[in-house]
Amino acid sequence: MKNIVVIGAGKIGSTIAHLLIHSGDYHVTLADRSKQQLDHMEANSTLSLAEVDIADHASLVKLLSGKFAVLSAAPFHLTIAIAEAAAEAGVHYLDLTEDVESTRRVKAIAASASTAFIPQCGLAPGFISIVANDLASRFDTLDSVRMRVGALPQYPSNALNYNLTWSTDGVINEYIEPCEAIVDGQLIEVPALEEREEFSLDGVTYEAFNTSGGLGTLCETLKGKVRTLNYRTIRYPGHAAIMKALLSDLGLRHRREVLKDILEHALPSTMQDVVIIFVTVSGWKNGRLVQETYANKVYSAVVAGRMMSAIQITTASSICAVLDMLAKEELPTKGFVRQEDIGLDAFLDSRFGHYYAQKAYGEKIAG
């Protein structure tokens, strides 16, 4: 059994720990600075609990030393501290961050590291890049790559048409920070919450708009190879207008903690959610302009004996699948590893990646 540290005992971190323990191949140390969060879990022969403050660098390095890998499910602003400790301890590093600047810092740390550093292993960034790169590889010449992802309540019941299913800090960060895109072949930054569009899928109307971080490293990978590349978050219509009013008109983009408090006390969480993945790639094959699309909906379900939300399933299974591939040396074991370096078929065929399989959803998932 490989020894793994999972940092962050929230909804996603605890789900990652559960999936890894259930597999039978990992011993997990679940770490958090909050004893209250850790008290939701029960230590056993395959799960240890550690109360650790990420700001205490020496204690963090000590915790990581001798382990195979550390998986960060902590808020994005703790990314660098964990990555630096991983490099010093000589362990593999994986995270779920959507923050662009943090990923750039992780890449710099990886340049001199003796182990693998694989950031952005979640849904978006993460799986979405694996899908987009797989579709793009089928073309002789690319024209456009459009990536759309949303984690939505199945039964919206408020003006925002939204429930908290993921990190509040992460959602706010995506709505504020600049977004990378390729427009007319040029890599540029575009503002979040702009370029709103509407589309229908299975008879339901959605809106989508720019958010930060979802492209991962794909802009850098496809620069010079594609005319248009963009990522937009999917929501029900009306959401973007209210969020723009809160962030811009009321100035809450400059008071993130206030906005976080408002959202967490006004929007209930829900287990009844759906993750929508919609990727469209167009380009030339054999001299003809053609288009290929990947569309999938993942619903909340019973996984590994536990009821999980769709965002828990997709995010946790992604990072667990990448860890499995790393443990089997199917991925580079040193330096910076991009999500688009991971093959889609290999990912979906893995024991964790198969939770994305379209035919599996709408029913209880065994295993």
- The strand line-up of the biggest sheet is 3-2-1-4-5-6-17
The residue ranges in which pLDDT falls below 50 over 5 or more consecutive positions are 358-367
Coarse morphology = globular
Q: Whole-number radius of gyration?
A: 20 Å
How far is the N terminus from the C terminus? Answer: 19 Å
Helices and strands, in order, run as EHEHEHEHEHEHEHEEEEHEHHEEEEHEH
Count of helical regions: 12
Helix content bin: 25-40%
Describe the main β-sheet briefly. Answer: 7 strands, parallel
Average pLDDT, all residues = 93
Features:
7-stranded parallel sheet; about 30% strand; disordered C terminus
Brief write-up:
With 367 residues, the chain is α/β, with parallel strands linked by helices.
